Amino acid sequence: MKKMKDKLIKILKNPGYIFIALSRLGFFKKMNDEKYLCIVYKIRTGKTLNLENPKTFNEKLQWLKLYDRKIEYTTMVDKYAVKQYVADKIGENHIIPTLGVWDKFEDIDFDKLPNNFVLKCTHDSGGLVICRDKSKLDMNAAKKKLNKSLKRNYFYAGREWPYKDVKPRIIAEKYLEEKGKTVPEDYKVYCFNGEPKCVLVCLNRESELVLEWYDLEWNVFDIGAKSN
After folding, report:
1. Residue 189 has pLDDT above 60, yes or no
2. Is the full-model pTM beyond 0.70?
3. Cβ distance 173 to 184 under 8 Å?
């Protein structure tokens, strides 16, 4: 309820967010990518996107969406295909074990899965079901969430082209536990020109998400509203 209220307040303060909401419902799919990104950038930042001479981090990200077209990126964003890609680079011991992969929810044989596991869609963000006790899993809710995600093309919201042709599938992975926490902390290392420069730590993913930024010496720094 609170999240819905916050979204409504956000839209009232900036009606441009109606455009973003409609885009997530499938509108504007035929709009030119550059035009779409310029509109969304203006809505979110209040500034005009400079693609001729991008200078800020966010401007450069939009440029990359349009012009950086390495074919392997599609493999990298596929949560199933990327496993072999990473294993070939640094070894299978760094990969979370896969328990199964299916084209649709109805194909999953839950009897063959352990008591706890994680289901996720291979092609998007948010298509996730965490099962800590199979006997208590709400099958209808899980099916509804994953089927909705399978119908979604993640490309259209942000025009990140590598997602456009990822095959929608469901994978089951080993459930990871961290003492005293419902969900393990998530570490994202940001690299520039191949060199790590900062780390984003994501906390409380199942409740109120907290994002914390650190430099390589683990000093906290705030880049939130100050960065573009």
Report:
1. yes
2. yes
3. no
